[in-house]
Amino acid sequence: DDCGGLDGTLTLPDGLTFIGYFAFARCNLTGELVFGENLKNIEYSAFMSCNFIGTLKIPKNLTNIGFPQSE
Length: 71
Known about the structure:
By secondary structure, this protein is mostly beta strands. It has strands at 5-11, 18-19, 28-34, 41-42, 51-57, 64-65. The strands form 2 sheets. A 3-stranded parallel beta sheet has the order 1-3-5, with no helix packed on it. A 3-stranded parallel beta sheet has the order 2-4-6, with no helix packed on it.
């Protein structure tokens, strides 16, 4: 199921190190999305089919944003 419409600021905690598959799939967010400072990995499809209008703050420590593997 989708997470519907979110308005305002969504701040993910500093203790979060990865965002898993489909974690925010089909979410709608208007506002600000702030990733915690320790986020290192965003899995493939974590934000699939999301509608986002606003500000995105990405931490310096982010090392991987997943993409599908080709064979």
